[in-house]
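ZP: hey, is the heme C complex queued? I don't see it on the tracker
AM: it wasn't, my bad. submitting now with these inputs:
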Amino acid sequence: MLWTSCKNDNDDPDPTYTLTQEDLNKSSKEVELNATGRKFGDASIPHGGTGLTTEDTYRDMYSTIGFKSSDASAVGTIFTKRTYMKNADGSKGDLIVTFAMAKRESGYFPDGGDWEFVMMPNDGSNDYETNPNGMLPDASQTEMRGQLGMCAGCHSQASNDHLFSQSEVPAFEATQGDLNAATYEEDLMITGKEYGDLSIPHGGNSGDPDSTYRDVYSNTREKEDLRVGSVITKRTYVKNADGSKGPLLVTFAMIKREAGYWDDGGDWEYVQMPNDGSNDYEANPNGMLPDEGAPNRGQLTDCAGCHSQAPGGGYSFVRGTE
Ligand code: HEC
Ligand code: HEC
């Protein structure tokens, strides 16, 4: 319809758009891969169904336009998301479900930014070689496709047109629960100069690195990269004269914050929690997280100055040494 392009009348309705299987398959430009955890703040969900936490899945996002394109809100733009289980060792598991958002004409669904929402569980009937984003349900299946209020309600919190991947990532503020979730063993019974000349007793005072045992844990599984929301903790114990493990002296944490939080600290937040008798270590085995702004939490230059020398440039000694 060539004549429409000659008109320049802003009152014209936007052209209508109908989502097809062929178009859905074209959403193949990488937007973000392996999103996991609470990267998008409190809005983050496992996006894989009930009974899962945000840490249990990986989410891969694609679109027809790529990352932060100015066409994100153009009619006909499609965003897709593929959700996979995360295996116990942190590797990527089976595909659970795929999702789509397709931008429709203005007025289609004002409460949902005029996006059409689609949900396509992996029920075994789709060939993902042919349809990598799932098989589009018929438009009559209004529970799986269309003006899905449940999707729109949450997506309306994204600052850029209902699209989380195209919005600013919110500040990551760790909770006590995030600290407690650091239960994966990284390296236990560290003592002496196991990590070279920078090794310290890490017990809150100077001394011989051979005078303590240090146990390091994280919430980031073995095969998973460190990322926003990663927490690494360390528990330091006295080493008794007979070589056995003595009382707990102090716990530490490093919390990976959003990009830009603190360049000189590798965007880590540093925490020091001396065992002063006020914590219940049954409930909080990595210590009790001080309030944000407390002197023993935040951009602690003494910690970062040494950790900046960790091999690999990631500020973690344990993860920097393969
Ligand atoms: C409780 C909040 C919430 C609900 C409900 C929700 N989403 Fe999302 N969605 C997110 C977040 C957060 C992201 C960002 C990526 C991530 O963390 O997985 C996202 C990303 C997406 C993306 C990639 C595009 C983008 O950048 O936002 C698609 C497509 C998507 N969701 C579709 C859906 C569909 C379809 C539904 C309903 C069946 C739905 N979502 C329900 C929170 C939600
Ligand atoms: C002089 C160097 C130095 C200083 C200062 C230092 N650390 Fe460390 N840190 C290390 C080394 C070396 C390791 C490796 C494990 C070990 O030997 O105990 C480590 C390990 C850690 C770990 C485990 C994560 C990892 O892989 O690096 C945490 C958490 C940690 N330190 C927190 C802190 C905090 C918080 C401070 C400041 C209060 C701090 N550190 C100060 C040298 C240092």
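AM: back. The two ends are 61 Å apart (CA to CA).
ZP: great, adding it to the tracker
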